[in-house]
Write a structure and sequence with these properties.
alpha/beta, Rossmann fold, two-stranded antiparallel sheet, 13 helices, 42% helix, 17% strand, binds nicotinamide-adenine-dinucleotide, binds 2'deoxy-thymidine-5'-diphospho-alpha-D-glucose
Length: 379
């Protein structure tokens, strides 16, 4: 049985990773460490922590004593670090929290793992490591900065972050690489493009748009909507991380992306038309609408679900124009590829949200409305 510390797994990608791992492997034990910030939700992982191979601990990755105790108790073979402040817009409002969690949290995990895993010294004074252990850092394509109309991010692209969020993630990557170079620590890093899928918090573009359409609210598109993101279904990202942790070369960075570039305006229009079509084909879905208008035929009217809902709002400060990943390395070395076509993934995602309105209510019941008003009113 391999023992994993999975941090931040009450959030979007980490929770999908836990579900993926429990389903895929019989021989893994997972300990989730999550501080349950606004982005973490126990309901998201409730069914997973019922499993006897999965445990939950509420706590901060910056808490050295707690992480030390967890290492002593569970004798981890792997650390997979998802825990982070992850929203660019929030980083523009409160950069310090991002530096604290994303950089110092990462450094704390590395340090505790180092103490637990080092078992001696070689002739040159470098630490030697318990066999089979690995620290994996879940990073992002945003560390590379922004592209113009052409080209792709490869692993050789220089790091050039622009937002406080991406600067904190880039710094964390550099700390991970410093532990590799200085202590020969067995580490890997993945840098993935934008994910979408179930359990995505509705502050990010796709789930926010779905939520607003169902409520009949305006759909805020930053600037002119021409910024490009490279969307990947979350399960494909989880598969990539599993492959890299188990078979990736030590010390290496792997880019992860599915060659699915779309402008934000395309994403919003596609989400509108897909929801409308699903509700035309299956009127039972109309029950998920918060805005209920009954037509002359006695049916719930959906004619208002159209592009008129789109509203262009003030642009994000320092808004990166385009991200696009070249995934050749992970494809050639590990045989990874993106299995979910965007046309299928977006339908699966919308269907999940239509069927899980209770989850949306739960995760937006706290400060969400306040956040939304601060971020979007008078924008
Ligand atoms: P998320 O915001 O949905 O989840 C983050 C989780 O981390 C939450 O459960 C939160 O409670 C937890 N957390 C925050 N601070 C913590 C702390 N100090 N200690 C312990 N737990 C803490 O984020 P996500 O979208 O799932 O992203 C996960 C990771 O993947 C992040 O490192 C992010 O940078 C990276 N990433 C995200 C994307 C994407 O499209 N969402 C793409 C590439 C990489
Ligand atoms: O590229 C990977 C990154 O993707 C991850 O590292 C981040 O954690 C994740 O949040 C995501 O960052 P983005 O800033 O690209 O995602 P977001 O969903 O916030 O925005 C996607 C695009 O949509 C971006 O160009 C901004 C725009 N946008 C976003 C929101 C929330 C809008 O036009 N309107 C909105 O209301």
């Amino acid at each position: 049985m391999k023992s994993y510390l999975v941090t931040g797994a009450a959030g979007f990608i980490g929770s999908n990773f836990v579900k993926y791992m429990l389903q895929k492997h019989d021989d893994v034990k997972l300990v989730i460490l999550d501080a349950l910030t606004y982005a973490g939700n126990l309901g998201t992982i409730a069914s997973d922590i019922d499993n006897e191979r999965c445990f939950f601990v509420k706590g901060d990755i910056c808490d050295c004593g707690l992480v030390d105790d967890l290492f002593a108790e569970y004798k981890f073979d792997y650390v997979v670090n998802f825990a982070a402040e992850s929203h660019v817009d929030r980083s523009i409002e409160n950069p310090q929290l991002f530096l604290q969690t994303n950089i110092l949290g990462t450094q704390n995990l590395l340090d505790v793992a180092r103490r637990a895993w080092v078992n001696g010294k070689d002739k040159l004074g470098y630490p030697t490591w318990r066999k089979g252990v690995r620290y994996h850092q879940v990073s992002t394509d945003e560390v590379y900065g922004a592209l113009g109309a052409e080209g792709y991010f490869t692993e050789a692209t220089p790091i050039c972050p622009h937002s406080p969020y991406s600067a904190s993630k880039a710094s964390a990557d550099m700390v991970v690489q410093a532990y590799r170079d200085t202590y020969k620590m067995p580490v890997t890093i993945t840098r993935c493009s934008n994910n979408y899928g179930p359990y995505h918090f509705p502050e990010k573009l796709i789930p926010l748009i779905i939520k607003n359409i169902l409520a009949g609210k305006q759909l805020p598109v930053y600037g002119d909507g021409s910024n490009v993101r490279d969307w990947l279904y979350v399960e494909d990202h989880c598969k990539a991380i599993d492959m890299v942790v188990n078979s990736g070369r030590e010390g290496e960075v792997y880019n992860v992306g599915g060659h699915n570039e779309k402008t934000n305006l395309e994403i919003v229009k596609l989400t509108i038309s897909t929801i409308r079509k699903m509700m035309e084909d299956n009127p039972a879905y109309r029950k998920a609408l918060k805005k209920q208008v009954v037509g002359a035929d006695g049916q719930i009217d959906i004619s208002w679900i159209n592009d008129d809902l789109i509203t262009f709002v003030k642009d994000r400060l320092g808004h990166d124009q385009r991200y696009a990943i070249d995934p050749t390395k992970i494809k050639n070395e590990l045989g990874w590829y993106s299995e979910t076509r965007f046309e299928d993934g977006i339908v699966k995602t919308i269907e999940w949200y239509l069927n899980h309105q209770d989850w949306v209510e739960q995760v937006t019941s706290g400060d969400y409305q306040k956040y939304y008003d601060e971020m979007y009113s008078n924008r």
